[in-house]
Recover the amino acids of this structure.
């Protein structure tokens, strides 16, 4: 899925000037800092989710997932706040002109913040044996986003690319979270805490 999420970087490089592409690339990579904690914690919880799910311990699998979702989201909120108030300063570390990417950074970060709110969707689907469904849903939505980028980038430039990237990410992760809740029985989103209480009462 990394290739799909990075596709807009390639398209920006094809459709806009190299300097503008550099501004987008730096904003894109900087926004990616929001995912570091979630990436690290999913490596820890992956075997736990698999073990509890396949043992029929759905409440425990839900508890682990909910903890991951909230921990990752709170970390992302903190980083988002830094980007919101100090984005131009951070990007200027790459060079004075790169501070122009502050709006791009915020737009991309909104998508990543929503991504964090849906929790560890990919890991849960992979660890519960639903890899094909994940690829099908994610691939279809990101494929549509790719086609949209071909139209949007020449017309609206970097801002358009960032909006489509964030929008595609939000739609894809939300769809996967809904699918996971319906067919796996685990709510990977922040609302999973509510599902945890319901499972505990059973």
């Amino acid at each position: 899925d990394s290739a799909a999420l990075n596709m807009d970087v390639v398209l920006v490089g094809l459709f806009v000037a190299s300097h503008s592409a550099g501004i987008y690339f730096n904003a894109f990579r900087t926004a990616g800092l929001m995912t570091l904690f979630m990436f690290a914690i999913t490596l820890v919880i992956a075997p736990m989710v698999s073990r509890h799910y396949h043992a029929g311990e759905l409440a425990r699998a839900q508890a682990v997932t909910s903890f991951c979702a909230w921990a990752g989201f709170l970390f992302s909120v903190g980083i988002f706040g830094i980007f919101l108030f100090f984005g131009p300063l951070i990007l200027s570390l790459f060079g004075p002109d790169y501070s122009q990417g502050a709006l791009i950074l915020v737009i991309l970060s909104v998508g990543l913040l929503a991504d964090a709110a849906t929790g560890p969707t990919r890991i849960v689907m992979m660890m519960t044996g639903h890899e094909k469904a994940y690829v099908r849903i994610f691939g279809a939505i990101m494929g549509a986003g790719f086609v949209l980028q071909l139209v949007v980038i020449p017309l609206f430039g970097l801002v358009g690319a960032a909006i489509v990237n964030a929008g595609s990410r939000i739609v894809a992760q939300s769809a996967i979270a809904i699918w996971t809740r319906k067919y796996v029985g685990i709510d990977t989103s922040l609302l999973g805490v509510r599902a945890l209480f319901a499972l505990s009462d059973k």
In short: The radius of gyration is 18 Å.
